[in-house]
């Protein structure tokens, strides 16, 4: 048995390539790192890697993380500037005994010392979109904090080993130095090959309040199905934040247990995710909350075509990650 699951439609091409590796017996670590790197390299995704939207000072500060479910080793980077493929830097850090989470200048210096390539990650298209978003929000007296779609990827290989990887450019118009949940172990990601793995996307400030990914894995360990674990954690967190904080942002998660069974939960209208297993070719699903449970269906051809057109649309037309 092998399997992969990831947040958002943008993971489809990466999972399509990586799932062939898993089918041939490759390790889950290589599969998820390669798949996330594919997303980072694609310039039309505005919330991950090359072409990601900048912070309020105009810099693309990237966050990424990797966790090995066999050893529980992890590596993560935050606020990494102008280094190609932050997921590969995070993966390399997971091999270090100490200094597993590096941020800012320290993360960049370490990446360069290890031979990782410099690359200007801010594109002209991203700057055009940045200016457009500023006109639509700040210039109108509205909050600019929007656009926070992390790619989170879980892999299970034929040996039973699991890995998880995340990557994001973070909250649109975030302040310099801001970190969300994506590089934070237990919140944006968690993986234990003896149980399962989870990864989150949405408003990091809210997801971190529930240690979301760890809690899902803990509930799977206690006997919950992945679907029940995901829904119970997300819905309980949403209720708690509404009751005690008065508001809540977007919360979405995907998870998979050691048997390759998966779950998904969301509090937004439409959340897309991608799954591939030995018995299921790479498939995009659309999820939404209905009453007390998240339901999902395969994306149809019209949705897929519309998505492909919108992410490549000239600036000025609606675009979505």
From TrEMBL:
<dbReference type="Pfam" id="PF01112">
    <property type="entry name" value="Asparaginase_2"/>
</dbReference>
<protein>
    <submittedName>
        <fullName>L-asparaginase</fullName>
        <ecNumber>3.-.-.-</ecNumber>
        <ecNumber>3.5.1.1</ecNumber>
    </submittedName>
</protein>
<dbReference type="GO" id="GO:0004067">
    <property type="term" value="F:asparaginase activity"/>
</dbReference>
<keyword id="KW-0378">Hydrolase</keyword>
<feature type="active site" description="Nucleophile">
    <location>
        <position position="150"/>
    </location>
</feature>
<dbReference type="GO" id="GO:0005737">
    <property type="term" value="C:cytoplasm"/>
</dbReference>
<feature type="binding site">
    <location>
        <begin position="178"/>
        <end position="181"/>
    </location>
    <ligand>
        <name>substrate</name>
    </ligand>
</feature>
<dbReference type="InterPro" id="IPR000246">
    <property type="entry name" value="Peptidase_T2"/>
</dbReference>
<feature type="binding site">
    <location>
        <begin position="201"/>
        <end position="204"/>
    </location>
    <ligand>
        <name>substrate</name>
    </ligand>
</feature>
<dbReference type="InterPro" id="IPR029055">
    <property type="entry name" value="Ntn_hydrolases_N"/>
</dbReference>
<feature type="site" description="Cleavage; by autolysis">
    <location>
        <begin position="149"/>
        <end position="150"/>
    </location>
</feature>
